[in-house]
UniProtKB/TrEMBL annotation:
Designated name of the protein: Thrombospondin-3b
Biased composition (Acidic residues): 214-239, 311-320, 614-639
Lineage summary: Eukaryota, Metazoa, Cnidaria, Anthozoa, Hexacorallia
Domain TSP C-terminal: 792-1008
GO-annotated biological processes: cell adhesion
Amino acid sequence: MFSASKSSNNETSDGVGTSKATGNELKCEPFLHTMEDGHVVCNGEAINSSCWTVCIQGFEKENETIGSFECQEGGEWSACFSGDICTICNKVNGSCVQQPNNLQSICLCNLGFAGNGKYCEEDSDLDGLPDVQLPCRLKDCKIDNCPFIPNSGQENNDGDNLGDVCDIDDDNDNITDTKDNCQFEANPNQEDKDSDGVGDTCDNCIHIPNLDQTDSDGDGTGDACESSDLDNDGVEDGDNCPLVPNPNQGDNDTDTVGDACDNCINVYNIYQTDTDENLIGDACEDKSDADQDGISDSVDNCKDIPNGDQLDSDSDELGDECDKDKDGDGVLNINDNCPLMPNKDQADSDGDNIGDVCVLDTDGDSIPDSQVPHASQSCTGTKYRDICTIHCLEGYEKENLPSGIYSCEENGKWSGEDTNCLPKDCGILLHQEPFVELQNCTGTNYKDTCDVSCDMEFNKTISYVRCGSDGNWTTLSGACFSGDICTICNKVNGSCVQQPNNLQSICLCNLGFAGNGKYCEEDSDLDGLPDVQLPCRLKDCKIDNCPFIPNSGQENNDGDNLGDVCDIDDDNDNITDTKDNCQFEANPNQEDKDSDGVGDTCDNCIHIPNLDQTDSDGDGTGDACESSDLDNDGVEDGDNCPLVPNPNQEDNDTDTVGDACDNCINVYNIYQTDTDENLIGDACEDKSDADQDGISDSVDNCKDIPNGDQASLETPWFAAGDGCNTTFFYHMNDRSNKTEMGSLAVEVKTVDQTWFMVFRKAGDQGNIWHRGTIDLSDDYPVNKFLNKTDFSLYQEVNLDGVGKVQKPPKWMVYDNGREIVQTVNGNPGILISFTRFGHVDYSGTFFISDKDDDDIAGLVFGYQSNRHFYVCSWKRKTQSYNLQANLTYPRSVARRGINLMVVDSSTGPGENLRDALWETGNTMNQTHLLWHDDGPQWIAGVAYHWRLLHDPDSGRIRVRWYRGGKLLSDSGNIINKRYQGGRLGMYVFSQEGVHYSKLYAGSPKISNFAMSFNGSIGGNVDLGVISNLLGGSKSGSITVAAWVWIPGPNGKVTCALPPINFGSSHPDLGFLTQSSDDERNWVLRKLKTPTPKTGPSADHTGSGYYAFLETSGIPIGSRASLETPWFAAGDGCNTTFFYHMNDRSNKTEMGSLAVEVKTVDQTWFMVFRKAGDQGNIWHRGTIDLSVRHLSLSPS
């Protein structure tokens, strides 16, 4: 609606000139057209003149009886209505949008563009004005007068073409704004009588200084020189609301603060305190908010159920969340056959218990469509462009997500794709409790059940499990209970174990055995299945269908007694799997029409070659011959996330990559570059990570304390019903000043609600234990710790980006992500799950079936990017990296055994990182070796078990490897805080046939500890009561590493390391010692080396001894090391040495020299390295050691 305004012949003065409206009678001002879909034609501007609307092509008047108007006060203008406005909307930089609760759609420009929706051009500063003039007359079409600084109001004081925010002289008085004491009024002389910094021309109180220019009543006279009636309400002295007009001076609570400005009208509060600044005084504010929705209980229309929006559809002052009759038709929701649309008569013509007002007639034949079973619907109305949407009831989901939305078309008929609401599928219940068997299952869909049966020694606590509305089975935990389960546990091959935070113990088989804990027999391949059939009914009791190759999923395609990993013909078509082009589907003729190596019987795209068989939407049709809608989201051409369903096509940063698959949702990055492969695009990645937990500071919810899992101490998900509660004890005692005790809180969350607080105590609670009880009579699940690993969704990371020597790994996933097989002899690579962990217990079975090779495989943890992670790997035999012919020395050497390494690469994937990963040692700017056990070598066909514990809080890492039930290798507690959590995965380098099975990852029960203490001069370190740490166990032990900080004469430590000297008259190692973890020893010598044409002729002084390594006849990769004792180092500490590295033959066989250091809380890392021939001279090396507590190792 638009109204006319009137002008007269009054003269006005603006300080520049005068103007006068022509004529003596009142007249309408020229009409400024603001309609996008029409224009106005007028026959004049005088009173009684007429104007009328003319709609542009494709539009029609909303009502033919309006739209003509006369020039008179109160005249109205009609809007125009289009049958289909969307036809003229900008398709490139704009879109057509349905207005809520309105028949009319509108044309809108996309974010980053401006205009009237038909014409849209770039808007660089996002202030709603285009950078260029558009061919339309709306304000939104006018060129931005300051295109690179937002100024939606387009303020332009001096009327030039430059907006005030860009104009350096807004009043054109030749004085720049930064120096002008009247920015918007010309005053070239800058007079300022009261010297308050405000020029007289614009000063509202010329003779009294008032820099802030406060003018409470807006009359042009500043408060500083105003009378005592600042609000112009006629009350001068004693006004009880001096800044708010209130001539009657009403003061209901007689607190001398008038009602007009009182923040508690009915409660005496002279000081008007409002601590939380919500405009409600503390004296009268109701702080209670039972449902924590931010609405005080005194005004909350649903005080016990959170409803921050206070939605009240039937306006009965009872919020919808609490309203038992949401549509206000007098019929309770539970009985209402159409609970969201008023229908008091409950008319139901077809007797299907669905009210007539809820029934659709999509084909317009006046015969109601069949109501979609298990669904409700909501409609915006029944007129043109109104929408009706089908909503599946709890426990059901749409067969096709974009379907079930109907729109009223211009022909008055409904149009849309029909839908079905199908019950959610819980799938087969994979995780079963010991001594529990499920029987008589009705299915796997919503409301289906399975009866629970317990072994004879157990009492049944539940009768059945049920497929719930969330698509998950109700819990089996505690379904069968025994007063003392330990009496039936296997005492030879098993044990009785107390479950953390649970009254019930469980029977478990020892490592190397499998079964239900009561019956345990040998498990040769460590996949969790026994080699023989046990007399119990759990899956864990069934005989392993491939007892010598791990296959925890027991896949068996042809249903014989032999698992697929052992079966040479999985489909029984008499063609062995190695030659069969359809391994799991019988096809004796091996037809392959597209010659892609995949037989027609199993090819998901028979006529188009697609060896990888990619099928993004899992519909059985390969992407290669799929329609243009690969993700089945209803969007075909131009889908901005072609492999991720996103029917709404949200694209917040307008980079043509949808939010659902954009690795930088708020930053334009069309190429989605993610150099370090951490799932965060380079364009928006914040590289800072103060606590080293792998979460960028910009999104870390605890940026100063490592929490890679981004969570607090939490329980697993659990089910809770009426009568459920939890009890705990707490102790909060501040024995000093009673002011420094923090707070304890318990929070819960449900599947449809985020965390909210149910218990809190703060401050000193006395030196006693208190009992706390919380009512959990609802579903309060918590999701943090995993009890079943899922690698079915994963990321592949190739660590040699060059890829010229070998192929990348090929990973096969089985058993719902609990079993992984890598089948290619290729470049180094890893498979990483998406779940982030902080404190983690990671275990599984490790098996290599390839009997020909002898290379590297292992596991990865703490993965933060392709440059930053921990890797534990196992090499069968010592070997230099010599895949390329004529590769010069020194070559990287991978040594036999198990090692633990931290990858901290400055380059990321490529040859440098590849060579460093092959090297069992330290490589500067690439890797640091934390631990190496050179004893064990893996044997093909033998199953091993690993268990890794990583506690980022203490930096403790411990990895153990077992063969059967026997401990094979143990790293002990290694302290390294480089990465404070991350993701888990598997690692291979040039090794095929690697099997990982029975994978598990979760948050561990802490059973051993690593501690470090920093003492101070004159002080001491209190270790407390050791027995408390050991839990009273006589078999426990604790090791303490201690050091002493010795200050120098001036109170500072410069360097407590004496000069290194190998002697002048006789050889002497001095304080150096030969290392015990190398293959060779250094030899001290004077004069020439024994082998001709090698080494120096004397030490760097010409007369002393030097240490050298004789390399003739020793294996490539042999090491010799010298170590210093521990020493203290401070600012200014460094060490100097001389080295000689001369290869006088072919210049290709010289090895490398490295200097490594370690501190009390970090293992060896490299600070100096030289490799290859350095000439026949002595060189000087200097290393800065300005860090504390170092040990030095030249090798």
